[in-house]
Amino acid sequence: MEWKLDFISEKNFTKHVKTTIEKYGEKLESFDVKRFNKNIIDPIKLIFDKTVYRSTWETIISNEIFRQRDKSNNNDIGYFHQRIFQYIQNCRVPDNGKEGGWDVIYENADGIVLPDGDVVHTIYVEMKNKHNTMNSASAGKTYIKMQNQLLNDDDCACFLVEAIAQKSQNIKWQTTVDKNKVSHKRIRRVSIDQFYALVTNHDDAFFQMCMLLPTIIENVVNNAEDITIPNDTVIDELQNIANQVDNDARTLSITMAIYMLGFSSYNGFKEYLTIDGN
């Protein structure tokens, strides 16, 4: 495969993808019934979902496993979006809590031209995965941090960079601090594609990265011996539970097996079936 990104090497990009996948940690471990039901699932909800969405038990169970895994994945993807800039020229990613706690710092001795024509030599970045993840208190705190940076350095700008923004943009960030509307031309709200364009000098750099990403992830997963591929057994174990007979040689349905995950100690259910002491 011909490498098409000139702002990051194939070696560094592959290394970064692999490190991001490794951050998934225990989320890559397979799900069995015990892990699936660790926090006790809601059988009523699953049964409603299956019926209303005209789905199968295999799909519903798979979706619930995905939901449980996904709850903590945002931090891992945040790592991907932030730490990739350590490999891009003129960017650095400070260690946690260092250099003011900024996520990324971009410096260019030749100058950085802002949309209104101002020229600065440093940009301090606070990075967010999604545009709606900050409440008003968090937004106010971040804005004040940026104001303080501008007071200490008149040759800089501060960016709130959003991986999932409402649209492609590089605009003045308008927010509320102490019930007052505030904005400053050097405190900006920037979608991640616009930030890539700024630091790489390629308007479609983020697009180019995204186009290569699936192939690199696939290669890493297929070739890395130390990355576990989940082999979830929940639906098979539920089928085994369903096939257990405790009353009049009747075949227990998957529906009853689902009920037993949440209600095995409830009146009526506990008399119907005991699941291996769980």
Q: Number of helical segments?
A: 11
Report the sheet-strand fraction: 15-25%
Distance between the termini: 51 Å
Please state the structural category: alpha/beta
Largest sheet: 6 strands, mixed
Strand segment count: 8
What is the C-alpha radius of gyration, as a whole number of Å? Answer: 25 Å
Give the total of domains: 2
Strand order of the largest sheet: 1-2-3-4-8-5
Stretches where pLDDT is under 50 for at least 5 consecutive residues are: 245-251
Give the arrangement of secondary structure elements.
Layout: H1 10-23, H2 33-36, H3 43-52, H4 57-70, H5 73-83, E1 91-92, E2 104-113, E3 119-130, H6 136-152, E4 156-164, E5 170-172, E6 175-177, E7 180-182, E8 187-191, H7 192-200, H8 205-223, H9 234-243, H10 254-263, H11 269-272
Parallel strand pairs: 3-4, 4-8
Antiparallel strand pairs: 1-2, 2-3, 5-8, 6-7
Helix pairs in contact: 1-5, 1-8, 3-10, 9-10
